[in-house]
Specification:
The chain has 539 residues and is of the alpha+beta class. It is built from 15 helices and 24 strands. The N terminus and C terminus are likely disordered.
């Protein structure tokens, strides 16, 4: 019998809590999980946390963050032990909304570098588009293989006070975090397998296979199987773990610039057997560093001539050059109009109300409410430069006021969404509400596939809404339930067909995704197992 969340958990009354409703009762879709978590003593949860940290350190699952002294600190990627649960009905909306938005963004990018019809219609200022730092004049008139620019997208979603999902940001340049989605699921399956009992959770471990298929789908035609590589700036990059993880999971080479060379109009990889042609590159660095001939001449991590090969259509680069123009925060307010213009549809997922500060009337409105709104630099990422009005000091508000007045086009402002909360384990093993967002990932190859769930980012500091990993945020394993979901769309499938689940596992770094997938399925099916002393066994 469901008894509800742990007795120590007290959700706030002023935001939407995803575990407990306003009447104090647990929400139905999460009640069974909270009952299982509530059966664990704080000492057991704390012990599980120590096991988790040791496991992540041993596996190299770390992330660089900035310490109190301003220096980068390498730490275990923080995984909270209470999963976040998304009902199938919610996921159906999210999945359709993401696919719709990604199709529109892809159409917009193509339009920017070709016909510019949306500009001609007066729906977006051309001056605004070309002034974006990631607008790439170098690829004007160049169309990537298959017409796909946004091969990998990770859009940030939040829930407002009534629980409605909204898009906070569009990340279609080099979105990171998917490796932690997979690692979190593997870790939870090993650390607390009994929590999965009674839930049919959609799997996520097929992501590397989906990405590999998408990259091969857009690779230029050639004899034989396309050669795909993951291109990393190197081990000093904060997301290097993810680069290595994905390359190993896909069974492809992880390369740096010194491993690639362009001869004529063709890109090759240096191997012990000589040069091997490369057909598709999943790059994890920005445009400006990719080719010192056409972008920044001082880049020492780029491949000279790569853009020439790209223009010649002999190599696919994901995401495509110039894609970053679409995830600039100054472009974000126009996405609903993109959906209407390019797709002829109404947006399924709404934006957070946003103000453009290069418009005098909106700027004046914002400057009068700085202590209520969130101000963001348009070209930054990772939470850099974000000022949350209600949490800012008078000095910080004056500083951002001066910055906006000096360069209004570099900022936007948004209504403050008081992010939803979920139960999170504190250091002493008790549960407390913490604010979260969600970054689901989609892959665009021959079609768009949205991976169930995504990276739930958690603000680990009480009351904080800064969830970015680089700002000290944590994460949660995110479960999408499939028991009551509608049939998958023909063009927006988000999971593998049954036959795909039976395919052999791809190469691993340390953990076996095959074991995880099989074990998780067994646990989900094992609904009749006695509860007994399961909590003690897991701890």
């Amino acid at each position: 019998m469901t008894t509800g969340p742990a007795p120590t958990y007290e959700p706030p009354s002023w935001v939407y809590d995803e575990a407990v409703a306003g009447d104090g009762r647990p929400r139905e879709h999460v009640a069974r999980l909270m009952e299982a978590v509530g059966a664990l003593a704080p000492e057991q949860l704390a012990a599980l946390g120590r096991r988790r940290d040791r496991t992540f350190i041993e596996a190299g699952i770390t992330f660089d963050t900035i310490g109190p002294d301003g220096q980068a600190v390498d730490r275990p990627f923080p995984l909270d032990l209470v999963p976040r649960v998304i009902p199938a009905s919610d996921w159906s909306i999210i999945k359709r909304g993401l696919a719709q938005r990604i199709r529109a963004l892809n159409a917009f990018i193509d339009d920017v570098y070709h016909g510019r019809e949306m500009v001609r219609e007066g729906l977006i200022p051309w001056r605004l588009v070309v002034s974006r730092s990631h607008f790439a004049r170098q690829v004007d008139g160049v169309r990537p293989p298959g017409g796909v620019y946004t091969h990998v997208a990770g859009l940030d979603l939040v829930r407002d006070n009534d629980g409605t999902w909204r898009v906070l940001e569009d990340n279609v340049r080099t979105p990171s975090g998917i490796s932690y989605v997979l690692a979190n699921r593997q870790a939870m399956t090993r650390l607390a397998p009994r929590l999965f009992q009674g839930h049919r959770v959609r799997p996520v471990d097929h992501y590397p296979q989906v990405l590999l298929e998408a990259l091969r789908a857009v690779a230029p035609a050639d004899e034989g199987e396309a050669t795909v590589v993951v291109w990393t700036p190197g081990p000093l990059n904060p997301a290097y773990f993810e680069h290595a993880f994905l390359a190993h999971q896909m069974g492809v080479e992880l390369v740096q610039a010194s491993d690639l060379v362009v001869r004529g109009d063709v890109c090759y990889m240096r191997t012990t057997r000589g040069l091997q042609r490369v057909h598709a590159i999943y790059r994890r660095l920005d445009d400006e560093f990719c080719d010192p001939i056409d972008f920044r001449p001082d880049s020492v991590i780029g491949v000279p001539g790569l853009l020439r090969a790209y223009r010649a259509g002999t190599v696919a680069v994901a995401n495509a050059f110039g894609t970053g123009v679409a995830d600039d925060k100054a472009i974000y307010p126009y996405v609903p109009d993109m959906i209407r213009y390019y797709l002829g549809e109404e947006p399924i997922l709404q934006n957070v109300p946003t103000y453009r500060l290069d418009r005098a009337d909106e700027r004046e409105h914002v400057l009068g409410r700085l202590d209520e709104l969130v101000v963001k630099p348009t070209s930054e990422s990772g939470g850099k430069g974000v000022v949350i009005g209600p949490h800012a000091s008078p000095a910080e508000l004056e500083e951002v006021r001066a910055a906006v007045l000096a360069e209004p086009g570099r900022y936007i402002a948004q209504e403050l969404v008081r992010l939803s909360t979920v139960p999170t384990v504190e250091a002493d093993g008790t549960l407390a509400p913490r604010h979260v967002d969600l970054r689901p990932f989609a892959v665009f190859g021959e079609t768009i596939r949205v991976i169930p769930g995504g990276l739930t980012r958690v603000a680990m500091t009480p009351g904080s809404m800064l969830v970015n990993s680089s700002m000290g945020g944590g994460s949660k394993d995110t479960w999408v339930l499939e028991s009551d979901g509608p049939a998958a769309d023909a063009d927006v499938a988000d999971g593998p067909e049954q036959g795909e689940r039976l395919l052999p596992a791809l190469p691993e770094i340390r953990w076996s995704s095959a074991w995880v997938g099989q074990a998780q399925q067994q646990q989900q099916d094992d609904l009749t197992a006695p509860d007994g002393d399961a909590a003690e066994e897991e701890a």
